[in-house]
Amino acid sequence: MAKRDTNKSKRNEYRHPLREMGYTTPKSPLSQLGKRLRNGCIAMLLLLWIGTEGYYIVGKGEWKHFDCFYMTVITVNTVGFEETLPVRKKPFGRPFTVILIFLSIAIQAYFISTVTAFFLSEEFENLWWRTRMERMAQRQKKHIIICGAGETGIHVIREFLESNINIVVIDDNEERLQGLQSMLGTFPVVVGDATEEWILEKAGIERASGIVVVLPSDKDNLFITVTARRMNHKLKIVSKGIDVKTLDKLKRAGADGVVSPNYIGGLRIAAEIIRPHVVQFLDLLSRDNELDLHIEELELPVRYPYNGQRLRDTDIRQKDLLVLAVQSPTDDTWYYNPPPDYVIEPHSTMIVMGKVGAVVHFRNELLGYI
Q1: 16 to each of 9, 33, 242, 254, 309, how far by Cα in Å?
Q2: 115 or 365, greater pLDDT
Q3: Residue 165 to residue 145: CA distance in whole angstroms
Q4: CATH number for the domain that contains residue 335
Q5: What's the angle, vertex CA 210, arms to CA 206 and CA 211, rounded to 5?
Q6: CB within 8 A of 242, min separation 6: which ones?
């Protein structure tokens, strides 16, 4: 039994290939600023120590250390107080004071230039933007995490936003994320490598209800799928698979759904020739167009009045909704174009089509019974 647990723990330990090769994340301008400020603090403390010990030596031990320290402080800060120590009576008193003043001016100039350059730089603006985005991400619950904002991710993001679904987007390209926000509006983002666990934690993976993995590399998608499943076993995971050979691997790694853009694109191209009108109609449904039609998937709550009734006895038709299919919660069987005598069960999944306003009203009505 202990051996099995050990093997299980070993299977849960995954390392990214870049980490195995000794890859480290390059230092950001903010970390470089921290290093410069740290060096400045060290220089200032060293200057105070040199000044204190220097005055003590100049005074040949006649002055107390605290008085020497106080003299150093008022000299370094050039506050204009009179000399608390009779440095003019010592041979090297005033020359040492002059040197101390010039050193303090150089160090303070270094401090001021460093801080000023940071606040006037683009990095400060980006830091404020990142902080605001991360705070937005921390407030999200039952949201969807989207890993990757590239050619595929942008369409996923747009669809979720148009469906009023809470999302958090992870991408390592800050400019790309800011560009998407300028086009689609503000939404929570986390700048970083989605293969890193701490980045997924920033995106609130433990509070999320699902994750969409659409990076351009199958290896990264596979790694994120394994990591996400280990971090939140209840998570619904949908991943993109570029190579057909990786589709089964992604499913075995924990993905609930795998989508191949190449496979779907091929079917779409063929459908444009075989059944063009069907494709045109489905395209109209999936876009904001003059038809104002929408297909929605809805789960019926236990307390909803339709439960136990025949389809003909409900007022779904009066709601301007067409029931395309119903999935029974008992055996997960799909009933397409269910007959009027079909009896609705609690937790049934209903696929309906109707005007956007009617669909939204029906969805809000169901939420009132949860």
Answers
A1: 17, 29, 19, 17, 53
A2: 365
A3: 11
A4: 3.30.70.1450
A5: 95
A6: 216, 218, 260, 261, 262
pLDDT tens-digit series, residues 283-297: 777 665 566 788 888
pLDDT over 70 at 9, yes or no:
no
- CATH for 191: 3.40.50.720
Shared-domain flag, residues 148 and 255: yes
DSSP assigned state of 165:
-
Interatomic CA distance for residues 74 and 54, integer angstroms = 15
The domain boundary, picked from 249, 265, 281, lies at 265
Residues 52 and 109 in one domain: yes
| pLDDT tens-place string over residues 266-321 | 998 999 999 999 888 887 776 655 667 888 888 888 888 888 999 999 888 888 89
Q: Which domain covers residue 149, as residue numbers? A: 140-265
Residue after which a domain boundary falls, among 119, 153, 188: 119
Instruction: Judge whether residue 7 has pLDDT over 70.
Output: no
Q: Please tell me the chain's helix, strand, coil percentages from 3-state DSSP, rounded to the nearest 5.
A: 55, 15, 35
